Amino acid sequence: MRNLFKQAEWHQAVARLIAAAGSECLADALVEAVGLAVRHQGTCLMAFHRDARPEVLHHTLEPAGRKHYLERYLAGPYLLDPLYQLAIRDDKPSLTRFRDAQPDRFRSSEYYRQYCERTHLRDEMDFLADVNGKTTVVLVVGRRDRRFTQAELARLALIEPTVTAAMHRIWQQWEGRPGVGGTDAVHARLLTCFERFGESVLTDRERQVSQLLLRGHSSKSIARQLDIAPGTVMVHKRNLFSKLGIGSQYELFSMLIEQLGAR
Predict the structure, then answer these.
(1) Which domain holds residue 216?
(2) How high is the pLDDT of residue 56?
């Protein structure tokens, strides 16, 4: 691809982005501009909140994909998403590769199998923009056929200020809608359910281990997170599996999803 910034199409796309009014038109123009920088197979613009469920501001998924990957995701499993965990942190990058934000055994987790593997994405780049003290807007740019090249990553880095500015404008438009904002009682219940998962039979340490297992951490990673020995993690894992009457991480994940769904 010849120099992006020498192309008339790029400057026309930026002009449409500047002229766009309304969050939907702005998001369409943003996706068009990003598509000139790198070829991709889908985008999703989301707002991740510290005190509420994520909101989908815009996406290019087909109806079946929306139901499977978004509606089910928003029912509670987002709590296990590394991108959600990254977005609500104080220290975060403005552009990251999704695989760089993952725990070390994330691709072996049931969350990955249920909510990531089925997307068939080979690669994913994420723009993150803090829009206020409680909310981070994230633009997911997915690739199904191959990974982004170094040249493509460099182009995404170059357009990051433009993308971030557009994400702020989209949020300003979205935030002004009736009913947006306020306390989310459902999120509070889901978070409490996750944090108290297994509390009737598990110790506090066993619950900590179970939460990290569900998020895709290995025994060594859990040991580093909790500052304990890997062997101790294995003991906690055996004990919590025994107390819950399960024999696999699949059963642990299924038990959590069932309890989240009952809330």
Answers:
(1) 196-261
(2) 92
**Tokens 């928003």 appear where?**
74
pLDDT, position 1: 52
**86 with 164, same domain?**
yes
* Domain CATH for 133: 3.30.450.80
Contacts of 79 (CB under 8 A, 6+ apart): 190, 191, 194, 260
> Tokens for 195?
């944090």
CB crowding 96-126: b at 16 or more within 10 Å, else e: bbbeebbbebbeebbbbebbbeebebebbbb
Of the residues 145, 175, 205, the one at which a domain ends: 175
pLDDT at residue 182, rounded to an integer: 58
- Rounded to the nearest 10°, the torsion over CA 162, 168, 171, 173 is -80
At 194, which helix (H) or strand (E)? helix 185-195
210 in Cβ contact with 197 (< 8 Å): yes
**Global confidence as pTM:** 0.91
